[in-house]
């Protein structure tokens, strides 16, 4: 039978290695998060492990609960920091435009038509008119009074200037 590729081809050693590597966001290993202890690896057989003092089942459960709570609190804090970093990175490239009803805008539409090179196709359509702001990031726009309105995210809109693009 042929060997499986990837992690499964490594067998239990590969999986135990994945379970014992610190995750970037949480700062903990998956084994720490799940079992509140480090895994016993094959190298522990060769080199040994520090001996733990045996405890009663009740004492072990209390220690386990405390360790799990502290590991999960630590992981939540690390995930919060990672989330803030991702938000900062996203916000640095996000548009700072704010539109009001009646403003003219270009709308980004990456839809491609067959038979034409993507390089020669216009990605920006318009002008569209802002009909209504639904929330901070979502707008309802309409190309003409008789056209069906579209609901568009602010990242796909840019202010209309007649000299920027030719109308598509």
Briefly say what this structure is.
Pfam families: Integrase_p58_C. The protein has 168 residues and is of the alpha+beta class.
Mean pLDDT: 81
Number of helices: 4
Class by helix and strand content? alpha+beta
The first-to-last residue Cα distance is 59 Å
Our count of domains comes out at 2
Contiguous runs where pLDDT drops below 50 for at least 5 residues: none
Radius of gyration: 28 Å
The strand line-up of the biggest sheet is: 4-3-2-1-5
H-E string: HHHHEEEEE
Helix content: 25-40%
Structure, explained:
This protein has 168 residues and is α+β, with helices and mostly antiparallel strands. It folds into 2 domains: 13-93, no CATH class; 103-159, Roll (SH3 type barrels), CATH 2.30.30.140. It is 34% helix and 16% strand. The chain contains 4 helices and 5 strands, in the order ααααβββββ. It has helices at residues 12-19, 30-35, 42-47, 57-93, and strands at 104-108, 124-133, 138-142, 150-153, 157-159. It has a 5-stranded antiparallel sheet, with no helix packed on it. A hairpin with a 7-residue loop joins β3 (138-142) and β4. The longest helix is centred in the middle third of the chain and has 37 residues, at 57-93. It is elongated, with a radius of gyration of 28 Å. The termini are far apart.
């Amino acid at each position: 039978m042929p060997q499986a590729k990837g992690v499964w081809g490594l067998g239990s050693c590969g999986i135990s290695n994945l379970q014992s590597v610190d995750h970037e966001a949480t700062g903990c290993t998956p084994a720490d998060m799940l079992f509140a202890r480090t895994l016993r690896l094959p190298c522990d057989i060769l080199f040994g492990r520090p001996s733990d003092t045996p405890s009663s089942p009740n004492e072990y459960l209390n220690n386990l609960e405390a360790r799990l709570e502290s590991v999960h609190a630590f992981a939540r804090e690390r995930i919060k920091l990672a989330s803030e970093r991702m938000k900062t990175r996203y916000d640095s490239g996000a548009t700072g435009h704010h539109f009001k009803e009646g403003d003219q805008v270009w709308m980004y539409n990456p839809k491609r038509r067959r038979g034409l090179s993507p390089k020669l196709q216009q990605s920006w359509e318009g002008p569209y008119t802002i009909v209504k702001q639904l929330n901070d990031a979502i707008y309802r726009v309409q190309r003409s009074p008789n056209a069906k309105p579209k609901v568009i995210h602010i990242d796909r809109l840019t202010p209309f200037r007649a000299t920027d693009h030719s109308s598509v």
